[in-house]
Amino acid sequence: MPSSRRLARLITDTPHLRQASAVVEIGPGTGAFTTSILEQKRPDALFLAVELNGTFVQMLKHRHPGVEFYHDSAAHVQTYLRKHGRETCDCIICGMPWGIFDETLQRSLLAAICDVLEPGGEISTFAYLGGPWLKPGRRFKRMLPEYFSKVTVSRMIWMNMPPAFVYRCVK
Ligand SMILES: C[S@@+](CC[C@H](N)C(=O)[O-])C[C@H]1O[C@@H](n2cnc3c(N)ncnc32)[C@H](O)[C@@H]1O
Questions:
Q1: For 24-40, what is each residue's pLDDT tens digit?
Q2: In the beta sheet, which residues pair with residue 31?
Q3: What does the pLDDT read at residue 129?
Q4: What is the rounded distance in angstroms from the CA atom of residue 109 to the CA atom of residue 106?
Q5: Average per-residue pLDDT in the chain?
Q6: Which atom of ligand 1 is nearest to the CA of 33?
Q7: Ligand 1: which atom is nearest the Cα of residue 31?
Q8: Which residue, 18, 44, 46, 69, shows the most beta carbons closer than 10 Å to its own?
Q9: What is the DSSP letter of 67?
Q10: Alpha carbon of residue 36 to chain centroid
Q11: Domains in the chain, please, with CATH?
Q12: Cα 43 to averaged position of ligand 1 atoms, centre (Å)
């Protein structure tokens, strides 16, 4: 189920996105957050997205011809920033399903993302209601302060299916 417009508005409602010179979207899926990112980001900001599912990538390229969508894992995000002459970015909007990943995958993806984030940069990602009560979601929540100096949790978006909230993490 794609995320709702309300969750898209919440996850992209951050000054980090509006001020960033380079923005990365991880796991855009069918593009629920992409339109909102395009509305909020600086017109001159670099924007690229990395998505594991090739069918979604083809669909997104067709829908947003000006955006750089790469068919790959977030583990290789640095390769794509380098393609555009950057080592790091200021803002990451992430739709990856952290709550279904095992610890090894959670840690390797968090490390890859943290590596490409500028100090002071922010990643916003979401989880579903109840996710933090299940083992992988609980582990993910506890892990975030190991990688980021500031972690905050948003209000719940009840009109999302299922209800969801946003983690904002500053490096
Ligand atoms: C829950 S969907 C969210 C899609 C969209 N952001 C939304 O909120 O509707 C998760 C997306 O993350 C992608 N994904 C999962 N693992 C990934 C990885 N390692 N690297 C990049 N994308 C990944 C999936 O293919 C899927 O499109």
A1: 999 999 999 999 999 99
A2: none
A3: 92
A4: 5
A5: 96
A6: 6
A7: 5
A8: 69
A9: S
A10: 13
A11: 5-170 (3.40.50.150)
A12: 25
